[in-house]
UniProtKB/TrEMBL annotation:
<dbReference type="InterPro" id="IPR036390">
    <property type="entry name" value="WH_DNA-bd_sf"/>
</dbReference>
<protein>
    <submittedName>
        <fullName>MarR family transcriptional regulator</fullName>
    </submittedName>
</protein>
<dbReference type="GO" id="GO:0003700">
    <property type="term" value="F:DNA-binding transcription factor activity"/>
</dbReference>
<dbReference type="InterPro" id="IPR000835">
    <property type="entry name" value="HTH_MarR-typ"/>
</dbReference>
<keyword id="KW-0238">DNA-binding</keyword>
<dbReference type="GO" id="GO:0006950">
    <property type="term" value="P:response to stress"/>
</dbReference>
<dbReference type="InterPro" id="IPR039422">
    <property type="entry name" value="MarR/SlyA-like"/>
</dbReference>
<dbReference type="Pfam" id="PF12802">
    <property type="entry name" value="MarR_2"/>
</dbReference>
<dbReference type="InterPro" id="IPR036388">
    <property type="entry name" value="WH-like_DNA-bd_sf"/>
</dbReference>
<dbReference type="GO" id="GO:0003677">
    <property type="term" value="F:DNA binding"/>
</dbReference>
<feature type="domain" description="HTH marR-type">
    <location>
        <begin position="1"/>
        <end position="143"/>
    </location>
</feature>
Amino acid sequence: MGNEINNDYIGTWLSLTHIQMNVANELESNLLEQHQLSLKEFYLLLFLSQAPEKKLKLHQLESMVSLSQSAVSRLVSRFEAKGCGALQKHICENDRRNVYTSLTQLGQDKLNRARGTFNEVLLRALPEKELEDLLQQLLQLKQQ
């Protein structure tokens, strides 16, 4: 890959990550303001809501939320400390070393309210035409 193509590739990638960071910041700000949820907490509730029986082991959440094991544990603990009743922790009966976190009905209700805000922000904040152009550029560069 030539130096000019390489620079175009990097520049396009950086533009995409800039858009992603701006949208993530906007999501975080709106979720905190309107629902007292961080973006990571929203993702935690979302992934739990999609899991069988609405529960997952802490180590399963690590890759889903893009955090280390200790960071996921702290995230769940902080969430529980808020006292909103959105999550419950359970010790696995078969292997007491494993801890499950499950979504309660209060957590599902909180997620349902926050989803509306999440979708509104995405619709407003995603620069559709710019994003489409950048993705097209990346695809063209990849084919060269």
